[in-house]
Amino acid sequence: MDKPSAENLHSPYAGRWVAIVRGRVVAQGGTPESALRASQATRHKEKPEIKFMPLPLNFPPILEKIIAAFPPEVDVHLVGGAVRDMLTNRLSPDFDFVVPSGGISLARTVANSLNADFMVLDDERDTGRVILTSENQSLIYLDFAAYRGATLEEDLRDRDFTINALALNLRDITIIDPLNGGADIRAKVIRACSPTSLSNDPVRILRAVRQAAAFGFTIDKNTRELMKQAASQLGNVSIERLRDEIFKMLGGPKASAAIRALEMLGVFPYLMPELLKMKGVVQSPPHIHDVWTHTLTVLDQLDYLLTSSLRLDFDPEKTSDMFMGLVSLKIGRYREQFASHFANVLNPNRSHRSLLFFAALYHDVCKPETKSVDEDGRIRFFDHDTKGADAVAERARSLNLSNDEIERLHKIVLHHMRIHFFADRLEKEKQPPSRKAIYRFFRDSGAAGVDLVLLALADVRGTRGNDITQDTWTAYLEIARILFENYWERPQEVVDPPRLINGNDLMKELQLKPGKIVGQLLEVIRENQAAGKITDREQALLFAREELTKGMSET
């Protein structure tokens, strides 16, 4: 691709179409037609030269390969987020293309040329999808659609926000920008394409919030008002589309800021109404926030934890945060294991991180309904964890999450208090969890145990804020170290000891009938294996006999 000249790069018209008369720019616009119209308004007797002023683009190398697969006679433009990302030096994982007609046909042609997968995405809108597999085995989606309207400009004006209403001509590398989205990108503003953009498709409310958080943009005031007005129409949007935006939001940067924005825009009554009950629910010390503010603070702390001390390229020498420095000291050696843990997704369409953040959003959701006050005035929330686990599972089912995801969310919320009990006992009584307690923790939580530890670290920071003492934080990190060390370094000794004996062996050796007693014996044998008290089959059988003698009976 030809690169723009140094003169063009510094031109105030870079990325715009200009009208030139006798070597001077007399007008400019986002399209050739708008530049011509602007010129004719003041110089109607002169015929200007209409020219595009190039600008630097972060051109993905894979586009060269894709362009080569286009039939030469087809008028095709790259549109939307991929163009926006080029202008902001980001790499887009997906590409949307538009053609006057024959989107499905073109997609099929490109798929055949690239030896890629093809599917019809939307027959009614003439949209086809090509699925490429990159060198790192990630999937790249190429969507081909017919214009939404009679012309390319009509198509762009019908989109969500001006920053996405841009088209790139892939033949001559010129940009069509009828709504001046390039200027909004430079100003870091998200602005609706039209007064009906949000009411036409209310899921754009969530998309605006997500993109504002992801790009560090602000949302135009008038657009915010349109979002509030359209919030009541969210019930008309498929739950899958809403779910996907929520999880992209939670999996991206500034998740708590995005959630705050949704609450301020009045979205939750139509999406997750149970979250609103947490607002204003007071908590006793050591809590410094009400339940809702605490929840948002936990999201902040979780984000900080994952993007600072536990990041693969974290340099402890460069941090001025003593608490994060202690994180690096205690559990920093497991950074690669954390990366692997989060790369192991339960659903290819949703990140592991987003699932953990959803659990964090719901971990105290049932505190309002379980609130009680002791005679001494202390506020309690008995069973908020068990009821919260059911609540998050119910919401997850309504969002059509997979069974594996629902189970993971249920486990995280159900067991989120256990780390606090471990840390409290260590700090006050100097008693670390026993091997048997560690075994039981991971028996009940499995891989969710890693998520539980991370959530607990964020939870205690969100509870105490700057009031947290070094002794308390050190106790939590010591519990984290103990659990991670056993999970990743001693799994067969403590976390998941190999079975020394099975149910058939027990029934044969001890003359037992099939029943609950067999499972109970097998479980207590494994607990004692984890505790280091049983090391071979003979000891397992002897222990089982002793348990029966002590009173364990068949039922």
Give a written overview of the molecule.
Among the domains are: 47 residues, no CATH class; 84 residues, Hydrophobic Seed Protein; 210 residues, no CATH class; 47 residues, no CATH class. The chain is α+β, with helices and mostly antiparallel strands. The longest helix is centred in the last third of the chain and has 20 residues. The protein is elongated. Helix 12 runs antiparallel to helix 13. A 7-stranded mixed beta sheet has the order 6-7-8-5-4-9-10. It has a 3-stranded antiparallel beta sheet with strand order 2-1-3.
What brief labels describe this structure?
alpha+beta; disordered N terminus; 555 residues; seven-stranded mixed β-sheet; three-stranded antiparallel β-sheet; Hydrophobic Seed Protein
Residue share in β-strands: 5-15%
Structural Rg: 30 Å
Secondary structure category: alpha+beta
* Total beta strands: 14
Poorly predicted runs of 5 or more residues: 1-7
Question: How would you state the average pLDDT, rounded?
Answer: 92
How far the N terminus sits from the C terminus, by CA atoms, comes to 78 Å
Helix content: 40-55%
Main beta sheet: strand number and arrangement? 7 strands, mixed
Shape descriptor reads elongated
Continuous helix count: 27
In order across it, which strands form the biggest sheet?
6-7-8-5-4-9-10
